[in-house]
Amino acid sequence: MAADKEKKENPVLADYLGQLRRKLFWMSGKKKRMLIEETKAHLEDLASDIAGKDKDKAYEKAIKRFGTPREIARNYKYLYGYGKKFIIVMLAITILFSALTVPFFSNFPPVGEDEEAKDTIQNISICCGVTSVIFTILTFAVIIFTGIKGGRWHGLAAGLAAFFTRTVIILGFLAFYAWISSFISEKISEGADTTIEIDFNFNAAQVCGMFFISILMVVAGVVAGRGIKKLKKDKLFDEEDDEDLETF
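Above: the chain's sequence. Below: its structure in token form.
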């Protein structure tokens, strides 16, 4: 309804506001509506200050003076941040990807006489190792993207989500495999006929390495957010200084 009303009033203004609305997709609905209304009022004031009978030309000049939808959306996102929708989606993706970064079976080579079973477990081990590397890279990419787009607090939230997800899974699997190892040992001691054993060769260095990667994910989110915020701030003030010089 609002878009139809804008279209009836002026097509140039309606098209501009429509583009701006799409650029502000990740913002909350209430904040987005407020910014659209403020932008509309500002453009109407600028257009009214420009003399001339051609309203379209007046709005085109006002828009040129005000800035493109991309520039204005960028400044709005810098000043007001992103909405809950953005961080919820990014956290969900981070949790999903980070859950697949733990190398479940890659450090558990099979021991026993059954060659077919040994080959199967070895293939699973290799696949899990490759999957872990791929999703570790993807998780870092998502965390850094979240920090760049949402700022250091969003980057921190994504990093912590990855850290706690990995921690829970690592501890859970270590406990599970310890239980399996104990169970197999108990069955063997009871004289059970077992042809496959699993050699649990996780050591302290490997576990510490996995936790170190988890900590790096948190650091990556914070650093990306802080760094990009400084760049955006410097760029924003540089543009404002340029406009002041042009006006002067």
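The two ends are 42 Å apart (CA to CA).
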